[in-house]
Input
Amino acid sequence: MTPQRANLIGSIWMIAAMALFAIEDALLKAAAATLPISQILVLFGAGGALIFAALARRQDSPLVPKEITSRPMLIRAVFEIFGRLFYTLAFVLTPLSSTTVILQATPLVVVAAAATLFGETVGWRRWAAIFLGLLGVVVIIQPGGDSFTPLSILAVLGMLGFAGRDLASRAAPASLSTAILGLYGFFALIAAGGIYAIYEDKAFVSVTLEAGILMALACAIGVAAYGALMKAMRTGEVSAVTPFRYSRLLFGLSLGILVFGETLTSDMILGSLLIVTSGLFILWRGQTH
Output
């Protein structure tokens, strides 16, 4: 396979992954109409974990490898729980469209933290792009504005959790398979649901047929999305495939508007442009320097 064809196929996989992740979010948001948030986290985590456990056993991978207790994996688990909890709260309690936009700032935080913590070289142009992208987040949540609510912070906290997870993943043992990483990623959802259940203090309810279908679809689509993402990153060059992560923005905004009747404001459009432009510029600078 030529590099050009590999990049094309990898890009298609990435777009598919982003579409599936957006659909997963929409299904979980719909399920929240009848199920407590903590129950959604636990059910979704358990369903995804079962699927990945079956995939891991099919690959003859041990379900509890010794590397899973390594320091990077323990740190990754903490950030995974933190990110999953607050991101789920964000898209359930606030508009899916704005939550999706804010999530796109994750790469900006990863680059900034890598420069600060790992000593990676980041020139002034990329620092300027990082601050411009984070300004886009501020434009969307509008702290101090009339439309600002404390719930607006949930998506930011979720985004920071995912950024920490991605940083910890850099140091994760390479011997761990995708299925094992997925398995423990969904275990983090169960833990997040258990933690929030204590705070939420709501009893779990009987799952209706409609809610059961929504949750089953979310589990299957979530696993498929994760698999498509791994396929994308392993097929094409990272520099060619990664920019297509921003296609999730289009899918998230479309679902928010068409399914949940959300409104796309001028502030959201401006914030989206700032975040995506900054992210693409950082990717470009990373390849040319």
Q: What stands out?
A: Residues 36 and 204 are 7 Å apart (CA to CA). The chain has a mean pLDDT of 86.
